[in-house]
Amino acid sequence: MLVSEIAKRSSLLGALLASVPLVSVLAMVWLYLETRDAERIAAFAQDVFWLVLPSLALFLVLPWLLRAGVQFFVALGLGLVLAALAYAGTPGPAAALRRALAKTRPLAGAGVFWLRGQDSNLRPIG
């Protein structure tokens, strides 16, 4: 909400605040405090980097569609579909993500997943 209020006054400043990888930074700090495992954090940061790239498809197509007169939610939906296709078409990260998801089991009623295998860099924290 703060970002949208700032973007009303300055789209550049709002975009700057929105682009800060707050969730990733918080995850790395939390992961470090709980594990002190620099290699795990390095692997996490590298995985985030490669998975950010396909998400950029949304930010490329959304302005173009909006300027072409496409209604906002339609343009957003198309941008999200394109980003999902970009994720699916990214060979290394997509394959790793599919492998990781194949090893997950949903927690009852929690709506989150935890990893069972020992061969993955992605493990539950704690």
Description:
The chain is mainly alpha-helical and 126 residues long. It folds into two domains: 1-36, no CATH class; 42-126, no CATH class. The chain is built from six helices and two strands; from the N terminus they run ααααααββ. It has helices spanning 2-9, 11-19, 22-35, 38-67, 72-88, 91-102, and strands at 104-106, 113-115. It has a two-stranded antiparallel ribbon with strand order 1-2. Strand 1 and strand 2 (113-115) form a beta hairpin. The chain is flat and about 45 Å long.
In round numbers, the mean pLDDT is 81
- Count of distinct strands: 2
Biggest sheet overview: 2 strands, antiparallel
Helicity level: over 70%
Q: Radius of gyration from the CA trace?
A: 18 Å
- Helix/strand order, N-terminal first: HHHHHHEE
Query: Which structural class matches the secondary elements?
Result: mainly alpha
Instruction: Report the uncertain regions.
Output: 108-120
Strands of the widest sheet, in order across it, are 1-2
Layout of strands and helices, then pairs:
Blueprint: H1 2-9, H2 11-19, H3 22-35, H4 38-67, H5 72-88, H6 91-102, E1 104-106, E2 113-115
Antiparallel strand pairs: 1-2
Highlighted features:
126 residues, 2 domains, two-stranded antiparallel sheet, flat
Q: Quick gist of this model?
A:
The chain contains six helices and two strands. With 126 residues, it is mainly alpha-helical.
